[in-house]
Amino acid sequence: MPVWIMLGGILFPVLFILSSWISAKSGRFGNKFVRTSIILTGIVFLAGMIFGLPFVHQPRLSNIHLRFFVGVPLTILGMGFRMHPLIYFKKMKTRPDLLTSKWVLTLHGPACFVTSGPYRIVRQPQYVGGIVFIIGWFLIWGGLYSFCILPILIIFILLWAPIEEKYILEKSFGNEYKEYKKKVGMFFPKVRRK
């Protein structure tokens, strides 16, 4: 595997999460410029890894059935999981634009607290959809280097979500959000015991 892929794929998420956490912990995350810079940097990194890495010359999976019969449905399912909450946000009139993702919401601060629709099942349906999409996308392209970076991308997403929740959503909605967290799982539905 080329050294630049490994270094970029490992060091960047670590630095990104560390800088996000430090900014949030120090109270600078409330600064719109700092928050915008951090979020846009994360998006550029993820986009580069998702849409650039498959095109790097690398060994490929030879199992076409795995690549297409599993990869394509996962990609489509991931896009559906990613888009449905955005369409639901539009329906709930939480922001004016449909064709943008959740990061725009966090750039401007949450407009209102939504606990219905896909948010009654999990707190972060966009991230769940994004992870499913990335797995499917990398399966379609079948690049072996992509699969080495895949766990790092998933960890990157899994570490960013709690930072977003703690320093944006809890700060904006307080105890109401904390109660919601007790009832609804972040990435997987919580099993309710009677």
Oligomeric organization of the protein chains = single chain
Helical coverage, percent range: over 70%
- Tally of strands: 0
| Main beta-sheet strand count, sense and barrel state | none
* Cα radius of gyration in angstroms: 18 Å
Q: Can you count the helices?
A: 6
Shape: globular
Termini, distance in Å? 51 Å
Which whole number gives the mean pLDDT?
A: 78
- Number of spatially distinct domains: 1
Structural class: mainly alpha
In terms of per-residue confidence, which ranges show pLDDT below 50 for 5 or more consecutive residues?
96-107
Helix-strand string? HHHHHH
What is the strand content?
under 5%
Compact summary:
The chain has helices spanning 3-26, 32-52, 64-91, 102-108, 125-141, 144-183.
Outline the structure in words.
This protein has helices at 3-26, 32-52, 64-91, 102-108, 125-141, 144-183. The protein is mainly α. It has one domain (3-183). The protein is globular, with a radius of gyration of 18 Å. The relative contact order is 0.16. The model is unreliable at 96-107 (pLDDT under 50).
How is the topology of this model organized?
Elements: H1 3-26, H2 32-52, H3 64-91, H4 102-108, H5 125-141, H6 144-183
Helix pairs in contact: 1-2, 1-6, 2-4, 3-5, 5-6
Main attributes of the structure:
mainly alpha, single chain, 194 residues, 6 helices
